[in-house]
Design brief:
Layout lengths: L4 H16 L8 H8 L3 H13 L3 E4 L5 E4 L8 H9 L6 H4 L13 H16 L3 H5 L1
Helix pairs in contact: 1-2, 1-3, 1-4, 4-6
Length: 133
């Protein structure tokens, strides 16, 4: 399994905001893009998805930018990855058994389901707060 750039950039952007929004000061998109070496247009789409999902809030104006919408201790890496990547699953049929006629008797399905759960459990145990320590 490989995490795409969406997942990598999404996690880096959220971590950057958590680390640079001291005192409730919003973090500007261009600053995140520069620090994290992420193209600003690409970052805009990721931030938009994270904002729409309720993990971020935006502040308008010259000193505006983005802030976490919940405490860093309540934002899990699994939340971020699922928002920007979609379901955490090594194969589609684990989340949607109806797409495969073999789902009910597939010899590998239990393995894929176990892998999905192990990855999810690992990502779910990591919060932004833990990542900043």
């Amino acid at each position: 399994m490989r995490l795409s750039t969406r997942g990598q950039y999404g996690a880096r952007a959220m971590l950057d905001i958590a680390m640079n929004s001291e005192g409730g000061k919003p973090v500007q998109l261009r600053d995140i893009a520069q620090r994290q070496d992420i193209p600003e247009k690409y970052l805009e789409r990721l931030i938009g998805a994270l904002r729409a999902a309720g993990l971020l809030r935006s502040m308008r104006g010259a000193q505006g930018g983005y802030l976490l919408n919940r405490p860093a201790s309540e934002i899990r890496l699994s939340d971020i990855i699922e928002i920007v990547e979609g379901p955490i699953s090594p194969v589609e049929c684990v989340d949607s058994p109806d797409i495969c006629k073999r789902s009910n008797h597939c010899v590998a399905r239990e393995i894929w389901d176990g892998l999905k759960q192990a990855v999810y459990d690992t990502l779910n145990a990591i919060t932004l707060e833990k990542m900043t320590l």
